[in-house]
Amino acid sequence: MKKVLLAFGLFALMGAGVVTAQETTPADAVVQNPNAPVMTFESEVVDYGTIEQGADGVREFKFTNTGKEPLIISNARGSCGCTVPTWPKEPIKPGESSVIKVKYDTKRLGAINKSVTITSNASEATKVVRIKGKIIAPQTSPVKENTGAPVEN
Fold first, then answer.
1. Three-class DSSP category at 54
2. Distance CA 126, CA 110 (A)
3. Which are the contacts of 71, defined by CB distance < 8 A and separation ≥ 6?
4. What does the pLDDT read at residue 33?
5. 101 φ/ψ angles, rounded to the nearest 5 degrees
6. Relative to the CA of 103, which of 19, 67, 114, 129 has its CA 20 to 30 Å away?
7. Using CA atoms, how far apart are residues 46 and 49, in angstroms rounded to an integer?
């Protein structure tokens, strides 16, 4: 019985040592690169305003690489199939600017509130930008009916 208690005590001490070691060396510590690229946007929200159905749905997010290394965008994904982003495939050098184009399907009526998730090698690896606005039915002018009656001058 003494041996069992002694063995149990040793296991308990070893377990406490493992927990203490884990607490003092965080495995999730992230080392930040001080020279990493930085995406600085002119605006993180593009407002379409109120536009008519079928209008041009292309808008741009302008940004600059304010970091010290080239910026590489690996992906840009819309929150739904109606929002399609196009991004530069070549690296953006420090100090250079570029755009991410977003095409929204303006055939859909109603409010726009969508996001685009950008993945890159920037210090903030995932960045979310938004589009908003409202699409209304096109204005139509009334059609003048021809009654077939002669027109008087």
1. coil
2. 29
3. 37, 38, 39, 65, 91, 92, 93, 120, 121, 122
4. 87
5. -90, 140
6. 67
7. 9
CB atoms within 10 A of CB 121: 16
48 half-sphere exposure, CB direction, 13 A CA radius: 27
Residue 106 reports pLDDT greater than 70: yes
Report how far residue 103's alpha carbon sits from residue 60's, in angstroms, rounded to the nearest whole number: 9
Retrieve residue 116's tokens.
């685009």
Amino acid at 50: T
What one-character DSSP code corresponds to residue 153? -
Buried b (16+ CB within 10 A) or exposed e, 58-92: ebebebbbebebebbbeebebeeeebbbebbeeeb
pLDDT at 21: 46
Nearest-angstrom CA–CA distance, 145 and 153: 18
**Ordered structural domains, the chain, with CATH:** 39-136 (2.60.40.10)
